[in-house]
Design a protein that fits this description.
With 470 residues, the protein is α+β, with helices and mostly antiparallel strands. It is built from 15 helices and 22 strands.
């Protein structure tokens, strides 16, 4: 009897789901039927390249890390290479960023690990570390199986100013959350590993930095000429998947041989039978889909909370901007803006001969979602006013603008997230090995992490269905 080709559903058309689809195409047996279900009309998730003032502009993720924590090529770079896009990778031409401190800009000091200093003298111009708090107590900072918030650890060793003026804005720029709420293990895994060995925080930071050395002058970040949506488009093509846009998967039911998906509106649902499913959706939608088959897993996964943000992008005619890539804003400054990027300064390939500058500000911190209820025009006007104040010069009126709202976009990993996720995945694999979770809600934010998460989920499905034929 001839075996029928595998049928695999990828629920979620963000970069994690698309990376899973590419890996399935590369490693699963020939003839495998891959279908990507995306409830919106757009693929790519938080990768979305739009147009402003006649040129491509990122309305979502802006760049990716070039290296992974071991120093090897990141999963995003490897995927770009697999998709024939390696020659499109470009790097920032201006790397220095600043912090807003007491209403003015000060350069972000070097030698830190996401704001946590390995040399206290280097951060003195921005924050005053607590005197003599980081002492050797004769034991590791963190227990072998423990997790703490980043803020709790750093405050206990370096004091409040280092957290409030350095660590909090650095983490806030990535997660829109607070250092006091975010898991050390999930958001700063390299530091968590060394904190389980080292007796001082300075020692732990230096050990983490030494474990992943970077060649002098080697670029940290990259993006793609033409925008990150080119990565999305190329992944769709390479996967050979059938793509279903505007196709919400509402139910997931275990059958004797696989899974039945209920797709589309309640009044006219479509039932689709598949052998395996990659759930590449945020934690709460995944929990809803797993609620019937695996209620305990759903409860563990669905506990994750998210922050919402808005990105306000403005095209300004010949503004007076500093030679910086952008700046971060501590919450103690009382501004709506939490970060700003000077796109046409940071990225040389975006600079325009007419002097038109593109500036993007990020608005919204976890717990302050009410601020995002303002109309687009109000958000843009506030951002324009605050940017002018920080820069100390009145910015010209914008010639074009765009407000992109990302509701529930950024996971808030509370301490213990990694253990909760590991327990959920272990239970899911034991009961239903043909379902795998992928995406930022599980493994961390950033394009490389999401790509790796999708690829790992695909490998788990391949193994569960009987292994690769390639």
């Amino acid at each position: 009897m001839t075996r029928q080709p595998w049928r695999v559903a990828v629920v979620g058309g963000g970069i994690a789901g698309l990376a899973a689809a590419v890996r399935l195409r590369d490693r699963a047996p020939a003839g495998t039927e891959i279908t990507v279900y995306e409830q919106s009309g757009a693929l790519g998730g938080k990768l979305r390249t739009g147009e402003l003032a006649g040129q491509p502009v990122e309305f979502g993720a802006e760049s990716f890390l070039m290296r992974d924590p071991t120093g090897a090529e990141s999963a995003a770079v490897a995927l770009a290479r697999r998709l024939g896009l390696a020659e499109r990778i470009v790097h920032p031409t201006v790397g220095q960023a600043a912090l807003v401190v007491d209403g003015g800009l000060r350069p972000i000091p070097g030698g830190t690990l996401v704001g946590v200093p390995g040399d206290l003298d280097r951060v003195a111009a921005v924050a005053r570390p607590a005197a003599d708090a980081d002492t050797d107590g004769g034991r590791p900072l963190v227990g072998p199986d423990a997790d703490v918030s980043v803020g709790a650890l750093v405050r206990s060793r370096f004091g409040d100013e280092v957290v409030d003026r350095l660590v909090d804005p650095m983490l806030g720029g990535v997660y829109a959350g607070r250092a006091d709420d975010l898991s050390l293990v999930t958001t700063m895994p390299a530091l968590a590993r060394t904190a389980r060995v080292e007796h001082t925080l300075v020692g732990a930071v230096r050990a983490a930095q030494a474990a992943a050395p970077r060649a002098p002058g080697a670029p940290v970040f990259g993006t793609l000429v033409g925008g990150l949506s080119t990565l999305v488009e190329a992944a769709v093509t390479a996967s050979g998947a059938t793509v279903r846009r505007d196709a919400a998967v509402r139910e997931l039911t275990a059958t004797g041989t696989g899974w039945r998906l209920t797709v589309g509106p309640t009044r006219d649902p479509e039932l689709v039978d598949v052998d395996a499913v990659v759930l590449a959706v945020p934690a709460r939608p995944a929990a809803r889909l797993l609620a019937d088959a695996a209620p305990a897993v759903a409860a563990g996964v669905g506990a994750l909370d998210y922050a919402s943000v808005a990105l306000v992008t403005m095209a300004l005619p010949q503004p007076r901007l500093p030679e910086l890539s952008g700046f971060l804003v501590p919450s103690t400054e009382g501004l709506l803006i939490k970060a700003a990027t000077f796109f046409t300064t940071k990225w040389g390939h975006l600079r325009r001969p007419d002097g038109l500058a593109v500036v993007r500000a990020s608005v919204g911190r976890y717990g302050e979602e009410a601020q995002l209820q303002r109309p687009d025009e109000d958000l843009a006007a506030t951002v324009h006013r605050e940017l002018s104040a920080v820069l100390g010069t009145a910015l010209p009126a914008l010639v074009d603008g765009h407000v992109q709202r990302w509701g529930g976009a950024l996971p808030q990993y509370a301490p213990g997230h990694a253990d909760r996720l590991a327990a959920a995945r272990t239970a899911l694999r034991a009961a239903y090995p043909t379902v795998a979770l992928a995406g930022a809600g599980y493994d961390g934010v950033g394009i490389p992490v999401c790509v790796r998460s999708g690829e790992t989920a695909a490998e788990e499905i391949i193994t569960a269905l009987g292994g690769s034929a390639r």
